[in-house]
Design a protein that fits this description.
There is one protein chain. The chain has 334 residues and is α/β, with parallel strands linked by helices. It has a domain at 95-163. 34% of the residues lie in helices and 20% in strands. The protein has an 8-stranded mixed beta sheet, with helices on both faces. Strands 2-1-4-5 form a 4-stranded antiparallel beta sheet, with helices on one face. Helix 5 (120-133) crosses helix 6 (150-162) and helix 6 packs parallel to helix 7 (180-197). Bound molecules: adenosine-5'-diphosphate and magnesium ion. Adenosine-5'-diphosphate binds at residues 13, 17, 19, 37, 39-45, 55, 273.
């Protein structure tokens, strides 16, 4: 059975901001899916929605099946159990997620005591094991967060995420706040853990190169939708959607300092989700836009074996197809 299956997920914040608009995803155990996109494209909203962590007032619809069970319709008790043993999240900026006044070992032990009904001694042993597993000496359990470096804190966050042996790890910009050397170490650690423990990984980043290097498949998000999806390397090296092309041009290599800036050749910002442009939401920034892109919504289309892209230029007339049938297709899918 598929570990994670997301169907037609929509999230609207109070005030009408449509932050996630009809996302479908699928992930098998032991596989790694990357979600890329500029800041504001809805990546964190999507991650939070998967575990029902959105603020009250956010309207959510669609299905999130974890091992076939819909997280959206679970009772709260069940959701809480899922958040530890089913799926856990590693966030960006570990300093803000760790409690500054508690020793990191106690913070790792807490879910083990709570959700595993372990004794204090068992929880302490498990905490030591987890720290060693993420490359820290077990003795660091007695440290306070401010006594650790950024990379060490992120390792602690990963140990916490692993505490109850989750089936799925969601990592939202897990290395963005770290320098390049540490970033690479943390990425290798996450990869190694996923491979060893056969968990599924959803990794979110604005950095397409990082995702291409770590993940099996890549989904590129723009204005709350997936605009391209396919094998990670292919999407990075030979993107089909103009937005994915701009993003991969901006992140040619991991840790390239020049690639910290906005997508090359792409003026402007992603749209405000409460004031989305008509037609293809990318058309105002798109170097390849046609007139009809301003009025025609572009759904995901076939873009080669195992690949999809939401662009009018996909499915270009091949043998037996004419520009007229292509136009026909575009009309009938809107
Ligand atoms: P990303 O993680 O890709 O940067 P987010 O999911 O954080 O994107 O944000 C997507 C959009 O939703 C942004 O326009 C952001 O301003 C908006 N948004 C995020 N959180 C809230 C909130 N709590 N209330 C209203 N709007 C929000
Ligand atoms: Mg985010």
């Amino acid at each position: 059975m598929t570990l994670l299956e997301v169907r037609n997920l929509e999230v609207t914040y109070p005030g009408g901001a449509a932050a996630v608009r009809g996302v479908d995803l699928s992930l098998a155990a032991g596989r790694k899916l990357g979600i890329a996109g500029e800041s504001g494209c809805g990546k964190s909203t999507l991650a939070l929605a998967l575990l029902r962590l959105l603020p009250a007032g956010a309207r959510v619809s669609g299905e999130v099946l974890l091992d076939g069970e819909d997280v959206m319709t679970m009772k709260w008790g069940q959701v809480r159990a899922v958040r530890w043993a089913g799926a856990s999240i590693v966030f960006q900026g570990a300093m803000h997620s760790l409690n500054p006044v508690h020793r990191v070992g106690d913070q790792i032990a807490e879910p083990i005591l709570l959700h595993r009904r372990a004794t204090a001694a068992e929880a302490r042993d498990k905490t030591g094991e987890l720290l060693e597993h993420v490359g820290l000496p077990a003795s660091r359990a007695s440290a306070y967060p401010h006594e650790l470096s950024g990379g060490q804190r992120q390792r602690v966050m990963i140990a916490m995420a692993l505490a109850c042996d989750p089936r799925l790890i969601i990592a939202d910009e897990p290395t963005t706040a770290l320098d390049v050397m540490i970033q690479a170490q943390i990425l290798r650690l996450i990869e190694q853990l996923v491979a060893e423990q056969d968990v599924g990984l959803v990794m979110i980043s604005h950095d397409l190169a990082v995702l291409a290097d770590t993940c099996d498949r890549l989904a590129v998000m723009y204005a709350g939708r997936i605009v391209e999806e396919g094998p990670a390397r292919q999407v990075h090296e030979d993107a089909r959607h103009p937005y994915a092309k701009a993003l991969s041009a901006a992140f040619p290599r991991i840790g390239d300092p020049a690639s910290r800036f906005a997508p090359r050749g792409l003026a402007g910002d992603p749209p405000d989700p409460s004031e989305l442009p008509s037609g293809c939401t990318f058309h105002p920034r798109c170097p390849e836009a046609l007139d009809r892109c301003a009025t025609e919504d572009q759904p995901l289309r076939d873009a080669g074996p195992g690949r999809q892209a939401a662009c009018v230029h996909m499915g270009a007339p091949g043998p037996g197809r004419t520009a007229a049938t292509e136009d026909e297709d575009a009309r009938s899918t809107t």
